[in-house]
């Protein structure tokens, strides 16, 4: 995994490829109807062309700057939100970013800053999540996932073009001792661990060993999850997850206990 995920390159989405004009056929029974048929075809073609995907537009900031930084050519204006392809994005939105290479999964991150320089380009600062297969261990290899929806939270930030944003996403922050929300009821990603991309270590989301400002950041995200999906049930103390153990195993153990006691 690269420390600098993305700088300047913007990959176009597959669904932005130009689609061919549909072909129209009509039965021609009378010579007098042929001219009308041709006129109808031209109208249909114009209508079809108007419905073709439009080229990707440049991202544009919304409203007045909330502050400025730098001087001269390096001056930047900071905004609370921007618009891209008709969608409004705001600070603290969870989003997916286009990957650097074709075939890679999209990057997930949180929009932490939105700036525009004198060149007019809109840039966002993304705070990145890591997929388990991207998170390297200091001893070698990669960390294991407890769930296919899992992402690792991190404090790693990097600047990318706003046009790299694909769409918004949902991330649930769940303490290690809580049961995971059901996919059907609450679709989205799951975060239970924090990844240190420098030391290549994992920390539990509920650990209190982070700096005050970082701990406050995590506490706010945990609270937002509770407000969105409600209270989650506790996992029994002896069933708390160990690294590499998934909740499918825990559910199996709980079922075995229930069958044994019934």
What does this structure look like?
The structure is a single chain. With 262 residues, this protein is of the alpha+beta class. The protein has 3 helices and 13 strands, in the order αβββββββββββββαα. Strand 12 (189-196) and strand 13 form a beta hairpin. The longest helix has 20 residues, at 31-50. The model is unreliable at 1-34, 48-54 and 237-262 (pLDDT under 50). Residues 1-77 are annotated as: Disordered.
User: What Rg is obtained from the alpha carbons, in whole angstroms?
Assistant: 25 Å
CATH topology-level fold name? SH3 type barrels
Q: Which superfamily, in CATH terms, is the homologous superfamily?
A: Bromo adjacent homology (BAH) domain
Q: Bin the helical content.
A: 10-25%
The CATH architecture can be named as Roll
Distance between the termini: 49 Å
Instruction: Give the overall average pLDDT.
Output: 76
Helical stretch count?
3
Q: Topology as H/E string?
A: HEEEEEEEEEEEEEHH
Class by helix and strand content?
A: alpha+beta
* Number of separate domains: 1
Number of strands: 13
* Unreliable runs: 1-34, 48-54, 237-262
Could you say which overall geometry the principal axes of the C-alpha atoms support?
globular
CATH class: Mainly Beta
**How big a fraction of the residues is strand?**
25-35%
């Amino acid at each position: 995994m690269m420390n600098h995920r993305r700088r300047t390159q913007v990959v176009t989405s597959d669904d932005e490829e130009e689609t061919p004009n549909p072909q129209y056929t009509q039965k021609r029974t009378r010579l007098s109807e042929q001219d009308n048929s041709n006129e109808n075809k031209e109208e249909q073609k114009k209508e079809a062309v108007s419905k073709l995907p439009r080229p990707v537009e440049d991202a544009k900031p919304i409203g007045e700057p909330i502050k400025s930084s730098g001087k001269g050519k390096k001056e930047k204006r900071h905004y609370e939100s921007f618009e891209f392809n008709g969608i409004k994005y705001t600070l603290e939105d969870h989003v997916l970013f286009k990957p650097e290479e074709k075939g890679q999964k999209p990057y997930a991150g949180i929009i932490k800053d939105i700036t525009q320089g004198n060149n007019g380009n809109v840039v966002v600062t993304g705070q990145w999540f890591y997929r388990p297969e991207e998170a390297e261990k200091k001893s070698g290899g990669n960390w294991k996932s407890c769930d296919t929806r899992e992402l690792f939270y991190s404090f790693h930030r990097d600047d990318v073009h706003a046009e790299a944003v694909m769409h918004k996403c949902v991330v649930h922050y769940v303490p290690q001792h809580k049961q995971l929300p059901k996919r059907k009821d609450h679709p989205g990603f799951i975060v239970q661990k924090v990844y240190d991309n420098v030391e290549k270590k994992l920390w539990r989301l509920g650990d209190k060993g982070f700096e005050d400002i970082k701990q406050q950041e995590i506490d706010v995200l945990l609270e937002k999850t509770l407000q969105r999906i409600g209270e989650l049930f506790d996992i029994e103390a002896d069933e708390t997850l160990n690294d590499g153990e998934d909740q499918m195993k825990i559910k199996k153990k709980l079922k075995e206990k229930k069958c044994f006691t019934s």
